Amino acid sequence: MNFVAGYLLIITKDEEKSFWLMDALIGRILPDYYSPAMMGLKMDQEVLGELVKLKIPRVWQVMAEHNVMWTLVVSRWFICLYIDILPVETVLRIWDCLFYEGSKILFRVALTLIHHHQAVIEQAQSLPDICQAFKQITQGPFVEDCHAFMQKIFTEPGSLSMATLTKLRTTCRGRVAEGEP
User: Fold this and answer.
1) 63 closest CA partner among 55, 77, 54, 53
2) How much helix, strand and coil, in percent to the nearest 5, is found in the chain?
3) Which among 90, 86, 96 is positioned nearest to 12, based on CA atoms?
4) pLDDT tens digits, residue range 121-165?
């Protein structure tokens, strides 16, 4: 949370505006992400896994074959809202969309990164290879050209409705609460 709060202060240069933006994030956009149990974060990582299974099944298969939990490779993406993951200009554009459209933007970004670099992930032969691939896909020209990247997040993953996310969240919340992967 400190990364997010710090970015908000740097961007707004106003403590009260930063406070209200943080309030919107914690209370409305990302509920339970920063709670002690982090249920919202855990649930959304599982939701991403389900979305990958539906939209990019070969990547999901690689993850399943190597028993890689999504939390291992994407928890930092979601909890830090891509700070220190993607270039600053790209992060700020993502945040604009996050405040306007809500949490589904986090999934659009993740799905775009994974889909665009599917071949890199599919080449992984082990857990360390997969972890390295997920680090690699967040760097380079694809994410540095924020304008092109932002266009891609609205086209590459295809349709992603809030109804679909709500349904998946309900399913995944139950699994996370029971302690299942």
Assistant:
1) 53
2) 75, 0, 25
3) 96
4) 999 999 999 999 999 999 999 999 999 999 999 999 989 999 999
